[in-house]
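ESCALATION

Customer reports they have been waiting on this structure for their group meeting. Please prioritize. Original submission:
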Amino acid sequence: MCIRDRGHFSESGNHFFSETSAGKYVPRCIYVDLEPTVVDEVRTGCYRQLYHPGQLISGREDAANNFARGHRTVGKEIIGLALDRLRQLTERCIGIDGFMLFNAIGGGTGSGLGALLLEQLADEYRKKCKLGFCVYPTPQVSTAVVEPYNSVLATHSILEHQDVCVMLDNEAIYDVCRRSLDLERPSYTNLNRLIAQV
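Update from on-call: job pushed to the front of the queue and completed.
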């Protein structure tokens, strides 16, 4: 996973990882989710040793597929902690180039909290590049009837505050898994692994 060049971490690795005093390489990232189960999977999963526990942030309740809950109520409770952790990471950087954000904008957390985070980043780090990878919902793999509304509301913030947005279509990814990878019923794990390779 990490590339070493004559005993030193490669230049590209230094952009995405930092070295601890114990010689361990830790990703320069934070995970933020309003409900704890997804982040708990990272906390207890096979990659738990890779991340610093302070970089895994979760709330107590989700946004219930509601943009307004993620942006105005439940999201406001966690945004301060997320920004503090982000500040700590950026203060340890020699020269920060920008931010990469990954979110699915069909639900309340990805759309509402994602938009709130973008607005805060635009305010605090105006001149830094913001690159986003957004998974847009589609009817074939939709889990909630309000996903189109959430994505429209989130798109306004994306257009306003991101420099570049790579739009990923859930249905197209689903079709790639079915047709090209011969997976009859792709799971979220299959979809996520394909997205990670993009």
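Sent to customer with the following note: Residues 67-91 form the longest helix (25 residues).
Escalation resolved.
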